[in-house]
Amino acid sequence: xxxxxxxxxxxSPAPGLxxxxxxxxxxxxxxxxxxxxxxLWLAVHLLEGGNARLLAQVAQLALRFSPRVSLEPPDAVLLxxxxxxxxxxxxxxxxxxxLEACAPLGQRLHVALAPTPLAALTLARAGAQLPVLQRAAxxxxxxxxxxxxxxxxxxxxxxxxxxxxxTLGALLRLPxxxxxxxxGVAQLALLDRLTGRTPEVRALFQPRARFRxxxxxxxxxxxxxxxxxxxxxxxxxxxxxxxxxxxxxMRLECQLLxxxxxxxxxxxxxxxxxxAAAQLRALLATQLERCVLPQPVRAxxxxxxxxxxxxxxxxxxxxxxxxxxxxxxEAHALIERLRAHLGEGAIHGLTLLDDxxxxxxxxxxxxxxxxxxxxxxxxxxxxxxxPLWLLNEPEPLTVRAGRPRRRGALxxxxxxxxxxxxxxDGRDVARDYYTALDRHGVRLWxxxxxxxxxxxxLHGIFG
Length: 463
Fold this sequence. Notes:
Blueprint: H1 22-26, H2 30-34, E1 41-46, H3 52-62, E2 69-72, E3 76-80, H4 91-102, E4 109-114, H5 117-126, H6 138-142, H7 155-162, H8 168-172, H9 176-183, H10 185-195, E5 212-221, H11 224-244, E6 247-258, E7 264-274, H12 277-290, E8 297-304, E9 307-309, H13 330-342, E10 349-352, E11 362-365, E12 389-396, E13 398-400, E14 403-405, E15 411-412, E16 417-421, E17 429-437, E18 443-449, E19 456-461
Antiparallel strand pairs: 1-3, 1-4, 2-3, 5-8, 6-7, 6-8, 6-9, 10-11, 12-19, 13-14, 15-17, 16-17, 17-18, 18-19
Helix pairs in contact: 9-10, 11-12, 12-13
C-alpha cells in the first residue's frame, strides 16, 4: 500500500519556504524576487460575467502592467507579471494598481496570482485571497478547491463524485494511467498544465492598431470652446489607447458633422509622434480657430493615423543654447505650432537630389522628424562653395567688352566650374560658373553659357 503525504492547509507554505506574510507580499527585498519562479501569472476574473468587448477593455488596461496578456473567454483575463513586481514594489501594490485601473469599468473583479496561468485562473474563480508565489506551494493551495472551478463538461464531475473525488487534491492523487484511461488524455493534460508539469503556451492579446471614435452631442455646438470641451474625452481615450501600445501618431483627423452641410474636416499633421492629450488638444484648439463652420456641429469623429513607436527621450542637463545644449523637441513643437497657425502646406524642409544642375539639385520635403532623422544625401561630391540663395530664374547680365556687369563691372575671382547635364530629360545645360565680386564687395555666383550667344547670367548670391 502506497504512503501518501499528508495534505497541507490550502494556503500554508511548503516546507522550507517562507509564509506569504506582508513582507513576502511587498517583496521589498531583492532576495525574495530571486526566489520566485520564472513566470507568475495574474488572473482577473469578472464575477458578473463578461463579453468580448468587455474582455478587450480589461486586456487593454492590463497592457499597462505587462506586455503578455491573454484572454480567457467568457469572463477572465490573464497577464504574466513576474517582471513587473519590482516596478510596482510587490504583489499588493500591483494588485491595487490593477484594480484601480479597472475601476471605471464598473465591474466586480477578483484577482489571483500563481506560477501557472491555469492555476491563477482556478484560484481566481474560487475567490482565493493569498497569492501563491512558489511552485512547491501550488498543490497545497489547489487541494481544497471544488471540482467546479475546472468547468469540465457536466458528465465528468458526476462520475468523479461517484468514486469519492470532490476536490482538486483528491483528483491529483488519482493514478495517472487509470485516470487517462477512464476520463481521457485531454483532462490529464489539463491537470499537467494546471500544476506546471507541462508548460502552457497561450495566445497573446493583440490590441487594435487603429483608433476611431465618434461622439454624438446632446446639443448643437457653435463655439470653439464647446467643441474643445466635447473633444476632451475623446483625446483622453486616444491617449490611453496610445500609451497601452507605447505608440504615438503623427496625423490626426477630426470631423465636425452638421445637420445638412458637408462635414468640416480639421486635420492635424505633427512633426514627431505624440500621444499626450494636452499637446493634441492645444494644437487642435489652434486648428479649430481657423475653421469656419457652415452650420452648428451635431457630432464629432476623431481618427488617428498610422501608429508609430513612441520613443521617450530623457531631458538634457543644459537648457537650449547653454553650453551647447540642443533644442531637443522644441524645434518639433515650434513646427507643429506654425503648422497649426499657418496651415499644413506652409512649413517645409529641404532635401538634396542627385542632379548636377543647381536649380534641380534640391527639392521641398517634409520637415525632419525623430523618426525620419536627417534626409540622406544621395548626390555625389558637392562643391564647397555654393550659395545658399539661388534665384528662381537666372537673371541676364549686361556685357561690355566681353565682361559681365551688374551695377558696374564684375570681378571674377575663381576658376570656372563647368556643368554639362540634363541631356536625358530635354532640359540640358552647358555652363561655366564663376564666383564674382561687384563694386560693393557682394559675392555673386554667375555663369556663362557655352552655347551661342554665350550670354552671362546671375544665378545666386553668397551670404
